[in-house]
Amino acid sequence: MISSIPFFLLLSLFPFLSSSSSSSSSSSSSSSSSSSSPQINSNSILVALLDSHYTELAELVEKALLLHQLEQALGTHNITIFAPKNHALERNLDPEFKRFLLEPRNLNSLQTLIMFHVIPTTVFASKQWTAAGAAVRHQTLAGGNGLSLGEDSSGNKVVDSAAVLQPDDVIRPDGVIHGIDQLLIPRSVQEDFNRRRSLRAIAAVIPEGAPQVDPRTNRLKKPAPVPAGAPPVLPIYDAVAPGPSIAPAPAPGPGGARRHFNGERQVKDFIQTLLHYGGYNEMADILVNLTSLATEMGQLISEGYVLTVLAPNDEAMAKLATEQLSEPGAPEQIMYYHIIPEYQTEESMYNAVRRFGKIRYDTLRLPHKVVAQEADGSVKFGSGDASAYLFDPDIYTDGRISVQGIDGVLFPLEENEEDSNTQKRTTTTTTPLVKVAAKPRRGKLLELTCSMLGAFGKVC
């Protein structure tokens, strides 16, 4: 049964519960808890940043979930913030790069970018900027080589390649904000963006014909050398289905010679993306706590398989009855029906249903398939009351795992009812045709017999 409060939420609340209990015991413990989590007053530089005219940077700080980390930094030292102007983020920034920063799976890159604009000390433009005209390098909260503070030929203040337009724009007792004309991009974030843009981080799988497998031994009839990065030669169902311990393994296990992908890291990334995206906590709880599907998916990705996960949101999972999850293996069977052994995006599925009407995708729950069709400009899965719409497209897409958010829980239809209905329709349509075709044939035979008997009587 799915708990009303996810496990990771209880872990996040545990420090606050422990600090509140310790503060009620004695005054000394309350002072220690306050020192571990400093209180930010209204005159702090962080509050000034959120209320300043640097609204684009303040919005990125909130989306990067860095408020708590910056509060901890202010508890130990003052800070200096280099804030880009709004037009530098709205007009002068590459739209693809901005889209890259706002994707949930690139949260680490966004945090590194924001921390690259913060120095853990107070540096005023009137003093402490340069030493005898030479550039001074300061470490940032993001680490790395830091920022170089100097002056150009005209005597204007510069930070790396950015010009300081408004030095000492906002001054507070715990820090200062300088306005700059462009965004400072660390090399690690730029390299990550280049890998995504050039598709070097995505392994393209070339479609090949199905291999010939001996049904007696479940081995390939003509084994061929598999190059590094190539897709697995056996179907995904042979890798998922457990077999006898004495039988030969249908696919190499984790850590084998053909393990070219880090499936565990990719599965961990997409689960963290679900949690940061919001609204899919129950799905993440099932994958991690109630089942071992996260480990199984990591093993499949490590062996070269690709997966598309149809993730029901929390509202859809809350509608499940207790009986639907209480039976042994029920959560696994439900999740298996929501995993497609193909790599599909929102664009590819929508183009397919627009062109072919209805598409039946294979699932890991054999032999059931999930039906997709176009409805109201989106993709609809299932039919009737057990249908679900593509609600949050492309939550996570890295070339091997694709996560598509849906607004309902899917269940396979009973195929026996469909077969019986088809047989009934066939019998009702064929029976009248047999009766109609038999009457004229019987009359012709009788007429032919009588004519032959009459001709025989005349001869006699």
From TrEMBL:
<feature type="domain" description="FAS1">
    <location>
        <begin position="267"/>
        <end position="395"/>
    </location>
</feature>
<keyword id="KW-0654">Proteoglycan</keyword>
<comment type="function">
    <text>May be a cell surface adhesion protein.</text>
</comment>
<keyword id="KW-0964">Secreted</keyword>
<dbReference type="Pfam" id="PF02469">
    <property type="entry name" value="Fasciclin"/>
</dbReference>
<dbReference type="GO" id="GO:0005576">
    <property type="term" value="C:extracellular region"/>
</dbReference>
<dbReference type="InterPro" id="IPR000782">
    <property type="entry name" value="FAS1_domain"/>
</dbReference>
<dbReference type="InterPro" id="IPR044654">
    <property type="entry name" value="FLA15/16/17/18"/>
</dbReference>
<protein>
    <recommendedName>
        <fullName>FAS1 domain-containing protein</fullName>
    </recommendedName>
</protein>
<keyword id="KW-0325">Glycoprotein</keyword>
<feature type="domain" description="FAS1">
    <location>
        <begin position="41"/>
        <end position="184"/>
    </location>
</feature>
<keyword id="KW-0732">Signal</keyword>
<comment type="similarity">
    <text>Belongs to the fasciclin-like AGP family.</text>
</comment>
<dbReference type="InterPro" id="IPR036378">
    <property type="entry name" value="FAS1_dom_sf"/>
</dbReference>
<feature type="signal peptide">
    <location>
        <begin position="1"/>
        <end position="19"/>
    </location>
</feature>
<keyword id="KW-0677">Repeat</keyword>
